[in-house]
């Protein structure tokens, strides 16, 4: 059961069915209430009309036993005097509830005389006005009170809505006329509507559930294909495979495209890592092999030991290991520090520590601050200076300046420059443009790659262009904290 409802298709079907069921129940209840209220109003109208018809007869002075009462099957009627005595009633009325009295037999005297004695004059209140006499005066109350009840007429019981109308007469006093309006139509219509709903709603829910199930299955079919392909990719570890992309423009198509883009990025990253490991192993092999050879020769023939060469190979191996370690930290997402660095003072300090430069370094420094890791920025400057020293003929220039929202550090030389088509390639790892150079002269090809990675992680850029002297000019741009604060 838990596995079934763990399916998106099952949950969507269940959710849609529940929503439709709630909507149908609410709509059905509203329809039933409206239908019942409407038919009840109609019953109230019939009861009120019957009560007022009898009330008008009482005002006209018609005797109780001569009242024209409605057909008892349609509207049972009671006439009750101000003392609560039943003075007139519909024929064949056997039982009644919901009115002012449950009596179904008129008071004997009232039935015979039509009311109490008028006094010494001996006039009968129940008799109609003699010819030539003025008709009895009276008033029918405009308000009607309604109640629900039931009645049994000629052995048949039914529910009614009763209207109570007050009548006042001069000679016979006050009366209340109760007349009923049958609720048979309301009950029949409500029962029919309820039966239709009980039959129709489950069928409609079944149709909704079936359609939702089929539509969801069709919509999720590409997801099943994507899942199957991803499982196959995981099992085979073949990152060159791609999941199928449906010919639609919905969320599933975007999911498939995003998945393929992720696979492409992952494949690129894995291949780059493999190349990095292979290149690093190749670069480490040379100094290690050279150092081992020198040590083995020195062990066998101490007089032939090249100490300077061993030290040089050790330093080169140490620098290469440091570069590889920094690249690993950068690839792992190491964040730059948040310290402020004055580029002009920073450049002066770094230059003061360099004692083995081949050509002179000239400076054009203007004070400008950046935020970042001093150690990583020192590695960038050192790598740019090392690259310039290898290619310069007689001059290397370092300058710092402010350019709007950017702090700019430039390192240029008067060498042969970088061909325009190679100006992006030189920032790739283990790339050396001059394949004829020896490793001792050219390095491992990691310096510029490290410099650009550090620049990007500091929110900046590093590009190369042609220097005024014709050589290469490397421009490092970093965000200025003053502009960020503004």
Q: What report would you give on this structure?
A:
With 486 residues, the chain is an alpha+beta fold. It has three domains: 1-235, no CATH class; 251-331, Helix Hairpins, CATH 1.10.287.130; 339-485, Heat Shock Protein 90, CATH 3.30.565.10. It has eleven helices and 13 strands. The strands form three sheets. It has a six-stranded antiparallel sheet. A five-stranded mixed sheet has the order 8-10-11-13-12. A two-stranded antiparallel ribbon has the order 7-9. Strand 12 and strand 13 (472-479) form a beta hairpin. Helix 5 packs antiparallel against helix 6 and helix 6 (307-331) runs parallel beside helix 10 (447-457). The longest helix is centred in the middle third of the chain and has 53 residues, at 184-236.
Largest sheet: 6 strands, antiparallel
- How would you write the strand order of the largest sheet? 2-1-6-5-4-3
DSSP strand content: 15-25%
Number of helices: 11
Low-confidence stretches: 109-129, 435-442
Mean model confidence by pLDDT: 83
Report how far apart the termini are. Answer: 60 Å
Q: Report the principal-axis shape.
A: rod-shaped
Count of separate structural domains: 3
Radius of gyration: 53 Å
Q: Assign the structural class, choosing from mainly alpha, mainly beta, alpha/beta, alpha+beta, or little secondary structure.
A: alpha+beta
Can you write the helix and strand succession as a string?
HHEEEHEEEHHHEHEEHEEHHEEH
Helical percent range?
40-55%
Number of strands: 13
């Amino acid at each position: 059961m838990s596995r079934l409802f763990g399916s998106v298709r099952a949950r969507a079907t269940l959710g849609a069915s529940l929503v439709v069921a709630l909507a149908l129940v609410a709509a059905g209840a509203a329809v039933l209430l409206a239908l019942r209220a409407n038919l009840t109003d109609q019953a109230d109208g019939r009861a009120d009309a019957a009560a007022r018809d009898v009330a008008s007869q009482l005002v006209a002075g018609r005797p109780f036993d001569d009242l024209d009462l409605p057909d008892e099957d349609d509207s049972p009627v009671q006439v009750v005097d101000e003392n609560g005595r039943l003075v007139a009633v519909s024929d064949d009325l056997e039982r009644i509830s919901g009115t002012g009295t449950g009596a179904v037999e008129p008071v004997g005297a009232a039935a015979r005389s039509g009311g109490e004695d008028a006094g010494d004059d001996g006039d009968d209140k129940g008799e109609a006005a003699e010819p030539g006499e003025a008709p009895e005066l009276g008033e029918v109350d405009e308000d009607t009170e309604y109640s629900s009840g039931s009645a049994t007429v000629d052995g048949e019981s039914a529910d009614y809505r009763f209207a109570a109308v007050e009548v006042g007469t001069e000679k016979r006093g006050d009366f209340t006329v109760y007349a009923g309006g049958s609720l048979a139509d309301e009950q029949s219509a409500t029962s029919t509507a309820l039966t239709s709903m009980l039959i129709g709603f489950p069928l409609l829910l079944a149709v909704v559930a079936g359609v939702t199930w089929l539509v969801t299955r069709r919509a999720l079919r590409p997801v099943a294909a994507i899942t199957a392909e991803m499982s196959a990719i995981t099992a085979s570890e073949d990152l060159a495979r791609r999941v199928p992309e449906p010919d639609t423009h919905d969320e599933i198509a975007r999911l498939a495209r995003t998945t393929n883009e992720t696979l492409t990025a992952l494949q690129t990253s894995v291949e780059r890592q493999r190349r990095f490991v292979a290149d690093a192993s190749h670069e480490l092999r040379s100094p290690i092999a050279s150092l081992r050879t020198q040590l083995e020769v020195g062990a066998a023939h101490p007089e032939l030991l090249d100490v300077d060469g061993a030290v040089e190979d050790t330093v080169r191996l140490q620098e290469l290991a440091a570069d590889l370690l920094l690249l690993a930290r950068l690839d792992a997402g190491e964040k730059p520090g948040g310290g402020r660095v004055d580029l002009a003072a920073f450049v002066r300090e770094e230059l003061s520590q360099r004692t083995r430069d081949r050509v002179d370094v000239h400076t054009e420094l203007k004070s400008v601050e950046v935020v970042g890791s001093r150690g990583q920025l020192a590695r960038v400057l050192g790598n740019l200076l090392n690259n310039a020293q290898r290619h310069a003929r007689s001059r290397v220039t370092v300058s710092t300046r402010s350019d709007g929202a950017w702090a700019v550090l430039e390192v240029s030389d008067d060498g042969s420059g970088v061909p325009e088509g190679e100006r992006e390639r030189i920032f790739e790892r283990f790339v050396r443009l001059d394949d004829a150079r020896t490793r001792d002269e050219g390095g491992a090809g990691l310096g510029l790659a490290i410099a650009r990675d550090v620049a990007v992680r500091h929110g900046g850029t590093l590009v190369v262009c042609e220097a005024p002297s014709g050589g290469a000019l490397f421009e490092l741009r970093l965000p200025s904290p003053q502009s960020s604060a503004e």
